[in-house]
Amino acid sequence: MDAWLVRFKAGIASATVVVAPVSGSVSANPAKINCSQNTVLAWVSKETVEADMSGMSPVPTSGEKTISPRQTTTYQLTASGPGGVVKPSTTVEVNPVVQSSLDVSSAEVSYRRIGDKVIEQGSTTLNWSASNADSVSLDPGGSVEPSGTKSFTLSPTQTGNGSVDEEFKYTLNAANACGGSDIKTVAVHLKGSIEPIPTVLLQSVFFPTAYPTKDDPDLGLLRSQQEVLTTLATGFKQYLEYDPEAKLSLGGYTDERGSDELNQSLSEMRAQRVKEFLASQGIAAEKIDATGYGKQKQLDKAAISDLQTNNPNQAPENRARDSRANWLAYNRRVDIILIPTNAESQRFYPNQAPDSEILWQRPQPPRSKVEANN
Question: 7-16, 91-100, 218-227: which has the minimum mean pLDDT?
């Protein structure tokens, strides 16, 4: 028997000493872990003189130790003593698999810039999670917690005017010390436009002699001048997207003929008529200030001569020679100023307009002709 060992002999006499067998056990709690988790390795041995644990030898004959293996590992206890040797073992299973997810709240966002002002700038929110990972990072973004959310405001890389259609990619990298890793990528489309500052075509508007009248305050804004205002209104409404605080300031004027009182009233009616027409084109009335200046602030003849010289629409020869008629015609107008830029309307006379003869003539034109071109 292994447990009975002969100690000595004396002649024909002998004696035996009982030696207990060596015993031992080893266990891990828990026996299955994720990467970087801990488990407690415990062992017990009896009748042991020397104990050895694979990967940690030597060890006390009994004890426990917290360990964090990086891969599935079998731990074997070798316990030896007079009673023999035993080699119990246990296996710790390590799960190296990283699982992650990455999604985006909006896969398509909008962007719009007019001039130097961003009118619309979309954002999106990334949502992510990663399990069994020691390090988690977003590209772009850097290191992050294993789970979380992060919002990104997107701007195009292009700087010039034009349509915007760009793709932005976000990548989640998750890894652990056990060699496990996972990568997730999402794409976000940025769509929109970069636009120049809208052009507001500012041109002064001209009226026939003595129009409008108190009896017919709507009469006198001829067709060619309505077209000028229609173009202006289109540009101004677009400009309001760039500067919602912008306004138009109208100044009505008359030529020098007539009394101060009559001309003050006439200039106010002209400014008011222009305001009403612009309002009919969709511009809010509160965006338009209208003031009449009567026959104050007359353009002098030198200024008008300069305007005539530089006017891209040259006057017919018969009109060009009549400097007084030109001077009077240039002063029957409404000037327009864009606030807050203080850009002023060009005062070039509409010499080539089909109704320019009615606008230009010195005497008050017949009502029928004005109505026909109103």
Answer: 7-16
d(CA 198, CA 239): 5
Which stretch of DSSP H or E encloses residue 270?
helix 260-280
CA 135, 136, 137: angle at the middle one, nearest 5?
Answer: 125
Q: Are 251 and 272 in contact (CB under 8 A)?
A: no
What integer pLDDT is reported at residue 126 of this predicted model?
Answer: 96
Report the C-alpha gap between 347 and 280 in whole angstroms. 23
What are residue 31's phi and psi, to 5 degrees?
A: -90, -15
Partners of 77 in the β-ladder? 53
Of the two residues 175 and 19, the one the predictor is more confident about is 175
- What's the chain's average pLDDT? 93
Place of tokens 């602030």: 297
Q: What per-residue confidence (pLDDT) applies to 12? A: 56
* pTM confidence score: 0.73
- Average pLDDT of the segment spanning 190-210: 97
Domain architecture of the chain: domains with CATH: 4-95 (2.60.40.10), 99-195 (2.60.40), 205-372 (3.30.1330.60)
Residues 84-103 as b/e (b if ≥16 CB within 10 A, e otherwise) read bebebebebebbbebebebe
d(CA 60, CA 53): 9
Closest CA to 106 of 158, 40, 151: 151
